[in-house]
Amino acid sequence: MPPAAPEPISPRSPRVTAARRLARRNARGKERLFLAEGPQAVREAAGHRAGGTATLVELFATREAAERYTAVVDEARDAGARVHLADEDVVAGISTTVTPQGLVGICRFLDAPFEDILARRPRLVAVLAHVRDPGNAGTVLRCADAAGADAVVLTDASVDLYNPKAVRASVGSLFHLPVAVDVPVERAVAGLRDAGVRVLAADGAGDHDLDDELDKGTMGGPTAWVFGNEAWGLPEDTRALADAVVRVPLHGKAESLNLATAAAVCLYASARAQRTRGGCRSVTHG
Questions:
Q1: Which label site among 50, 217, 233, 258 has the fewest CB atoms less than 10 Å from its CB?
Q2: pTM (2 decimals)?
Q3: Is 225 within 8 Å of 266 (Cβ atoms)?
């Protein structure tokens, strides 16, 4: 028997009104729900479960998107999500993008308790301290996922993980690895160190050079990288918490690297060192 067609929904439906409210942080926090837009994010959400509970709870789709992304709509339905067919202006009103792709999912919060992350004895962790730009936060999360990190931690001074721009910038990686939120940086560093993880602060003015650390063979053990604010980096009291403050060497004339690029270099350096027997060549020397 073929699956039932998506359920039509009125623009005046309370469900549409509730979905629109999730563009605001206070509404997300109150409902513990967030928006995931586009076929990639919806597909990832449909396949994600936390504690045995499906993450995707609702899907709004235009008729054109439902026909184009039939498999995604079917996956959403199979995950137990309620699927609504809606006019383009209704979906656009829920979406937070300039050019909506016709699919907007409503998802349950999925962040993990920090203690659960520590209990898994992580080997590679990205800690976002004082990161305020949601696009940067999502991109660093994506870099951490690509580098094979075990977890990401957002401190209580960082941006909302569920900001729609952060969710989009993660390109689905939000659904791939554990993320803890609202963790005071002191607690994050102390907990990771107690779990046997070396904590490195990434800073352009660091006393330690990333290439030197790689060449000395000090990067192969469990490591957490602490990344700071896009404009002013890490405050001195946060730098002082780390086991070492490490800079990415600049071999050309560039003044600095942006946050996401520096995070990618640092995370991949650790990932390579942890996966390479007998040492590791410097990743920035080529």
A1: 258
A2: 0.90
A3: yes
